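Summary for the steering committee. One of the milestones for this cycle was to obtain a three-dimensional model of the protein with nicotinamide-adenine-dinucleotide bound, which we needed before selecting residues for the alanine scan. The sequence and ligand used are listed below.
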Amino acid sequence: MLTSRIILITGAAGGIGRATALAVARAGGAVFATDQSGAGAEATAAAVRKEGARAAAHTCNVADEKSVQAMVAAAVEEFGRIDGAFNNAGIEGAPDAAATLAEADFDRVMAVNVKGVWLSMKHELAHMLPRGQGVIVNTASIAGLVGTTGYAAYNASKHAVTGLTKSAAISYAARGVRVNAVCPGFIDTEMTGRIFADQAERKAGLLTRIAQGRFGAAEEIANAVVWMLSDAARYMNGHLLTVDGGYVAM
Ligand SMILES: NC(=O)c1ccc[n+]([C@@H]2O[C@H](COP(=O)([O-])OP(=O)(O)OC[C@H]3O[C@@H](n4cnc5c(N)ncnc54)[C@H](O)[C@@H]3O)[C@@H](O)[C@H]2O)c1
């Protein structure tokens, strides 16, 4: 599905990012794995190479423009081009709702989740637009579609990702670049491990509100992202694809 495609992935050290790197490899693509954890990115690249695909790793903080610019330049230097990008790095931030959230927490979540996605798109687009082709998938969330109890900054940041996605999609559709977002539901990763640590009761209550009655696996998001990055989705643009076991539909 992605034969010979060069795919850049942010937040590739674990969870959804690493699962997507492996799914891209199985679909025939090459992976430029980036993360603020250089060791984590390298471990993902090694796992991709084990699948028989080409991979390279790079350390990048998506909240820093120079770092993002260097990431895109390094990917082009390594593989000659970028065909697709999965802007997936994100943090959950503090669990507070609006009345108790600290300014520093709000700024931190916005810097990574919103500015990070914008900066990644900005520099990927600078490479893709002159080529007249490219595909971008951003990681939003069901928290970009509906309200959450607490995690106000995260909730706001993911709604912002959906806006950035739609704006870029309609701005660049005529120039050959597609931009969409995946909206995962509750997925078993380190992030949800942190959120639900010591909260078995809260998690059990939540499961009754997921139609399929379970958290998703990172691979289940990765499979959707591979399809979104492929030509099979060539008429999909500005779309927010929910993959949530039926949570939002309930
Ligand atoms: N797990 C879920 O239930 C869920 C649901 C919806 C959306 N998401 C989103 O999916 C994405 C991946 O989440 P995950 O569950 O795999 O989490 P995770 O914590 O397992 O992975 C996130 C990765 O992003 C990296 N990262 C964090 N800040 C960074 C920065 N400034 N620069 C570069 N890399 C950075 C981390 O090092 C980590 O490897 C996030 O955007 C998250 O908000 C997750």
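Key point for the committee: Residues 10-11, 13-17, 35-37, 40, 60-63, 88-91, 112, 116, 139, 141, 184, 186-187, 189-192 surround nicotinamide-adenine-dinucleotide (CB under 6 Å).
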